[in-house]
């Protein structure tokens, strides 16, 4: 894998658009309902927009009506990092790409969604890139 974790802020700024940089590298959040993948049901693999690592599959995406793409599980446990986030006066679990350590969103549990895990990986569309392909 490339050494994405060693890129400087300046290198990230050149690689990403300002909006991508804000969410991926400054842990921003895109407004609800505007992301390009919020309602997408196309089959495929969602990759990290910063480094291209395959993170989520359409088969684990579900409609949580929360305004952002929601997944009940990552493609594999080792594709993401989960870390405690106490910003904004809340305790949440931040989700990052394990390869480039870019911010992706947050994961919430125990909300009662009828999914196999009862987890909701709430991921910003702008952090993802959908590669359309049949998923087993
Ligand atoms: Zn990444």
From TrEMBL:
The UniProt GO MF terms for this protein read: peptide-methionine (R)-S-oxide reductase activity
Catalyzed reactions: L-methionyl-[protein] + [thioredoxin]-disulfide + H2O = L-methionyl-(R)-S-oxide-[protein] + [thioredoxin]-dithiol
Listed InterPro entries: Met_Sox_Rdtase_MsrB (IPR028427), Met_Sox_Rdtase_MsrB_dom (IPR002579), Mss4-like_sf (IPR011057)
What are the EC numbers? Answer: 1.8.4.12
> Which Pfam families does the annotation name?
SelR
Alphabetically list the UniProt keywords. Oxidoreductase
**Which residues does the UniProt record annotate as the domain MsrB?**
9-133
Q: What is this protein called?
A: peptide-methionine (R)-S-oxide reductase
Origin organism lineage:
Bacteria, Bacillati, Actinomycetota, Actinomycetes, Mycobacteriales
